[in-house]
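Help wanted!
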Amino acid sequence: MREIVLSKAQIQEVCSRLGKEITECIKNEKKIPVIIGIMKGALPFMEDLVKYIDEKVYLDYLQISSYSGTHSTGTVQLLKDVSFDLTDRTAIIVEDIVDTGLSMKYLISHIKSKGPKDVKVCALFDKAIARKNDVKVDFVGVSLTENKFIIGYGLDYREIYRNEPEVTVLPPDEKEELDKMLETR
Ligand code: IMP
Ligand code: MG
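Answered by r_m:
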């Protein structure tokens, strides 16, 4: 049995609370804010979260790659950029998890270079103990106090498990089994 970190019902509770927080934060914006989902990990979270935002927003997506297996590779690659003009608009970056903070540091400076009014960060998980810089998350779903590798609901190990509906801890034996299986498939 896997250890459940966030069940389907808990995911909806977290998205509802974060949606209200974001709605409150952007209710007096003059220009329509842009919510930027970071692919691929944040896609399921983004889809649920935006249903709980009760204001007019634009949705956009950006894709980066920084992870290989269970470790950050240390370099961030931009695979797809945003398509909206962010000038003078509030941009809210939506991520699955902020771990070392390396990806988010890159994302914040990349988005800031487009001249937005403000840049805010929303993450389903905040692994603050693993942080290697001063990146802060404005809207935190769940703060993780233990450095465990989690999967499901967008989060992957070697691109697998993103489609699972709950967030669980990847057990070492299952990881080993998958590593072996991926050599042949
Ligand atoms: P960071 O640059 O170290 O903050 O890593 C951010 C990215 O690493 C996230 O967007 C995830 O894609 C991935 N990541 C970090 N921790 C985990 C985890 O526990 N499970 C799955 N992916 C993770
Ligand atoms: Mg990710």
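OP: Thanks! One thing I noticed: The chain is about 25% helix and 30% strand.
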